[in-house]
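explain this.
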Amino acid sequence: MINLADVAAYTMALGIAAAIPGPGITALVARSVGSGTRAGFALLTGIIVGDLLYLSFAVFGLAIIAQSFSTVFTFIRWASIAYLLYLAWQFWTAERHDMQSTETSRSDLGAALTSGLGITLGNPKTIAFYLALLPLVLDLNTVTVGNWAMVLVPATIAVLLTVGTVYILGALVVRRILAGSKAQRNLHRSAAVAMAGAAGTMILREL
């Protein structure tokens, strides 16, 4: 049975880890600026699902199983790197468009959700938090299925949704302000550099 202090320690650690900009946050902000709120929250949903998967691995002692699929996770990480580089290219070559438009197709939302999941599963920071740092924050031997379902899962969703929403809202403010051609070009190229930088960081960790 986990107590309130354990939950507080977990949510604080998760909140700090989530708020630190990484590939997931970079993609979240860039997608929110480029495609609007719905796409941003779709990508955030993918991020949350990925975190819940790693939380489940850690809580149910499946770290060994996760490690046994190292080849799969390596492929996911490289696929995430490729996706970030693709986004960087898209933003670098993007043309000016109507920032007030909020139309997003179902395929775009699906792509955003899938990319959020892929980036999270391939993010070394997420892997390190749940499979290495989480056991230091929580005594996983005391966590039951009920604790996982009724406490840790809702707490994880709440923390990630809160942090992600803050970033999305910040991105939307930028989206509304930067309507001019030059401002949009600078914004897109800054996002492209950020995406490429995140991909480069992941590549260095793979080498």
Summary: The chain has one domain: 4-206. The two ends are 41 Å apart (CA to CA). Residues 145-177 form the longest helix (33 residues). Residues 4-206 form one domain.
